[in-house]
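Methods — Computational structure assignment.
A single polypeptide chain was analysed. Its primary sequence is given first, followed by the predicted tertiary structure written as structure tokens.
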Amino acid sequence: MRRAFSLGVYRVRGMATCATCSKRLLNGIICSDCGNLQPPNAELSHFEYLGFEERYDVDTGALKRKFLELQNKVHPDKAGSSGDTKKQLFEEHSSRLNSAYKVLLDPVLRAEYMLGTKEDDKSAESPEFLMEMLEKGEEIEEISDHNQLEATRKQLIDDIDSIKAEIADHFSHSQKAEAVTALIRLRYYLRLLSNVNSRLGFDSK
């Protein structure tokens, strides 16, 4: 049996095997042994679907490479002149693949997905934190020197990386409340970075 761990809860499922050759699957899309596409399985998490361990600090470089590899295999154009059933299979996998990749690549969407919610927990926003973010935002707005703005951008990126590491640690210790609080901080810091990037003419960090 395979176990997927998320916030202290084990979800036990039967070992995923290929519908054609019965070999163990490394992802929910295509069998690495016989090369056949698999029937869509809504029970698989985004992590399982792409063949990754369920953890917040996923290797985004490996994720991008796996996405491109699988995208090339399930692009609807690959169905060629196959019948409607096979074309639909390609389309379903292509759509799910794009959705799963979008969620797992984004640090906020990934955390929301693992937490099972997209809603902000307003109770986790203390007055002190809100005041701190307000003051930080005002300080950034007052910066007019380009070099100082560049330095602020670098510091924000470092702060964001630290918050991501903190979120990963909370997930690894099944600390949901702490993960929610850190996620709220991450959202605020990403907004600050977006503002700085815009002023510097960057599309993203």
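Note: The chain has two domains: 9-105, 127-200.
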